Amino acid sequence: MASTDDDVPRKREELERCPPGHDGRGVALFDLAYALHERFKKEREIDDLNEAITLHRDALELRPVENEEYDRFTSLHNLSVGLSDRYDELETVDDLEEAITLGREALALRPPGHPYRDVFLYNLGHYFWDRFLKKAENRDLEEATQLCRAALELRPLRHPDHSPTLRFLVLCLSNRYENQRSVKDLEELVTLRRAELELYPRGCAEHVAHLHSLACDLRRRFTQTAETCDLEESITLHRAALEQSPPGDFFRSSTLHELALCLSIRHDKHGVANDLEEAVKLRREALQLRPSTHPRLDASLHNLACDLRKMFAKTEAIRDSEESIKLHRAALGRRPPDHSARSSTLRELALCLSIRHDKHGVADDLEEAIKLGREALELCPSTHPGHDASLHNLACDLRRMYAKTEAICDLEESIKLHRAALERRPTDHPARSSTLHELALCLSIGHDKHMVADDLEEAVKLGREALELSPPGHPDRGTCFQNLARDLRKRFMQNAATGDLEESIALLRPALELRPIRHPDRSSALHELALCLSHRHDKHGVADDLEKAI
Prior knowledge:
Blueprint: H1 7-16, H2 25-43, H3 46-61, H4 71-90, H5 93-108, H6 117-135, H7 138-153, H8 162-180, H9 183-199, H10 207-225, H11 228-243, H12 252-270, H13 273-288, H14 297-315, H15 318-333, H16 342-360, H17 363-378, H18 387-405, H19 408-423, H20 432-450, H21 453-468, H22 477-495, H23 498-513, H24 522-540, H25 543-549
């Protein structure tokens, strides 16, 4: 239908010639409504859209059933589009609700096999998507996803609307994954991202954006499945995107951030120092590209601080620890109490202060760490993904506080929090072994204070499980050997069961192999082994044991 600047007055004249009861009134109403809607699209005058909707309603009333010219369908479709456009302008939910109702009826008039069914599947999908954004109800997202997937099936590769439909389906699945964390959605997302990338080859303006998006989803899939090939491909794609994103490019800072994240994850998995060093370098560049007004500055500050904390754990360079604390404080200043990521910065800052306390013994650091840990836990309800880590970290700091003050309430609260964390860390959870180890340590300390045999028995049981979950190569394996050996020696002192003492000695030998000269825990492991050998000498009188103990 032609549309010119003169359409509205001309169509209004035509309507005036078709009074109520005239055979041509339905067509005249529709034509004027259509012309007003077209003028609205150009001039954005809301009065034009309001009048168009009113006229479309009048036309629809004159078209109660479908005919050979598809008049009712045409009115349903145009009225639903008009209501959707008005919702975009005014966000009146009633308009969106009516658009959905009309869209459903219009789709019913275009059954499977109809040549234009894809259009109405796509439009109705968008209406549900808009309602999902407004109300955050998952059923709307489900409906939008199903309709869009059906539309894409009717729009194959060479269809002119294949690309926007593919993009819409990716958007729906990406949001559904964020809400539900379904690996199935992530699998489909990766497949669709690859299809998008093929539509935009190297040199195309959108190629870098699709490289970046595919790489991000591969990294997300790695976090779900631990398939190293996904992480490696993500790094390769991010490097390719970075090469095509010169300084000043829109995607450069986000690509720097994501590549650094992948390298940091690979470092955590394999311990390669070069990965962490490159991650820190990339984080610094990303931070420089984000001025104080950048909406994601807080994330850049937080992530660089986390990698510097990891760097300090390897090098013990105090400047890394100090800079990490400084950056976390800056990030926290940009993450107010209602910020979704405040809890993670609170937790990380508390961890940095706790580490500095362990290094220098400053009581204020530990007190602040506990205060921050409590706030982090308050911001992480039981359904929050960071709830278990908040429980664990606060429990560790309370155990440290008990070591300084011997306030039994701190130790009891630590045990309570570790038990809660353990419930949220099942057998396949990567951090279960650390909570087992820490809970066993607390129970062992409690046994020393109150001599409750059950505490020691449980500590031994937990220690065995922690060791089983720390295979060769695990960073905590040496600690698990040593702590279980210590608790078995304590049990020997109570029960005089030689098997406990022998097992303790057997565990301490591999613990020492994992604690070479200059290792900070080598002296404590040697001391523990000397104690065991001395006890065995006292029990059996073997001179060699005494000489080795000395």
